[in-house]
Design brief:
Blueprint (H helix, E strand, L loop, with lengths): L1 H9 E13 L3 E6 L4 E8 L2 E3 L4 E3 L4 E4 L5 E5 L6 E2 L2 H6 L1 H4 E3 L2 H4 L6 E11 L3 E2 H5 L4 E3 L3 H14 L6 H22 L4 H7 L6 H12 L7 H8 L3 H12 L3 H19 L4 H7 L5 H12 L3 H11 L2
Parallel strand pairs: 2-8
Antiparallel strand pairs: 1-9, 1-10, 2-7, 3-6, 3-10, 4-5, 4-7, 6-12, 10-11
Helix pairs in contact: 6-7, 10-11
Length: 308
């Protein structure tokens, strides 16, 4: 247990956004995938996920790890629309209408609350993404449901200290999710296999170096010097502990940084590509679309729509 306490201490948790939705039109999204971790609390109505369309009961929470694709149904009825993720985001208001938390109790339509958050180990590695766990239902856990509701209530406040309260509530929420996983012995194999890198300080140094030098030379030769291992061995060493080769990991981090810049700045696609290590803008755009399925410019518009 002490080991998991150290893991939790190493995870930086950040609240990103929260919304309450009333379902205007039931929708089935066969390829739902969000960039960030997402928790969906079903207040009343219908929510299903996965190939088998497993049912989430009212009062339960669906956890969708960032970057994990799953089929998702929001809302009941026979007249649901089937739309790909890209179209869903572009026409979100057609299916989901924002509603205040206090109005949820009296609403007759299907209603959900959604919290998105970031969780990074040493502010570098996406924690839940690194565990490689699928979407799953959190059943019989009132504590998690209450924390989501508390976040929603706080979002509608304008009192002093709001940001700090949201941060504290989100940290407690993520810890409760991890406790739920451990208590119910969920994904035991994934946990035992994929958190081994927390034990190796050389690998942590590599993570930190990559994070702070995304625009520079991150060849195996450079990485070998950082980790103090041979150039021939550094790739094998990295993959042995993380399950991914270093250059694939570097590209993922570069693309993640690019998405963050698209979200938070008005920099051109060309400048963003250069900042994250791509001198050739055309190549950067090709790799970006290959990874996310949409062009970088469209991703920027998509992120704007998410925050509407």
């Amino acid at each position: 247990m002490e080991y998991y306490n150290k893991v939790i201490e190493s995870v930086n948790i950040r609240f990103l956004r929260g919304f309450n939705y009333q379902v205007e039109k039931p929708v089935f999204i066969p390829d739902h995938k969000e960039f960030d971790n997402m928790l969906i609390l079903l207040h009343h109505g219908t929510l299903k996920f996965g190939e088998e369309q497993e049912i989430v009961n009212e009062g339960e929470v669906l956890f969708l790890p960032g970057e994990k694709k799953t089929a998702l149904t929001i809302g009941g009825g026979n007249k649901r629309a089937e739309v790909p993720m890209e179209n869903f985001l572009e026409n979100k208001r057609k299916y989901l209408q924002s509603i205040s938390f206090k109005d949820i109790r009296n609403a007759e339509e299907d209603c959900i609350s959604v919290v998105s958050f970031e969780s990074k180990v040493f502010d570098v590695v996406n924690f839940f993404n690194s565990l490689d766990i699928p979407a799953f239902i959190i059943r019989f856990n009132d504590r998690i449901a209450i924390l989501i509701e508390d976040i929603m209530k706080e979002l509608e406040q304008s009192s002093v200290g709001k940001e700090r309260i949201l941060r504290s509530l989100t940290e407690a929420l993520v810890i409760e999710v991890l406790r739920h996983i451990l208590k119910n012995r969920l994904f035991v194999e994934e946990l035992s296999t994929n958190v081994t890198y927390f034990k190796d300080p050389r690998l942590i140094e590599l993570f930190k170096y990559i994070k702070t030098n995304l625009g520079g030379d991150l060849s195996n030769k450079v990485l070998a010097k950082v980790a103090n291992v041979s150039e021939d061995y550094v790739g094998q060493y990295f993959k042995m502990l993380t399950g991914i080769n270093p250059q694939d990991y570097i590209e993922y981090q570069r693309m993640e940084a690019a998405v963050d810049l698209l979200r938070t700045t008005k920099k051109s696609i060309r400048d963003i590509g250069k900042e994250v290590g791509y001198k050739d803008t055309a190549y950067f755009c090709r790799r970006f679309k290959m990874m996310y399925g949409v062009p970088a410019g469209k991703m920027r518009r998509r992120e704007s729509l998410i925050n509407v």
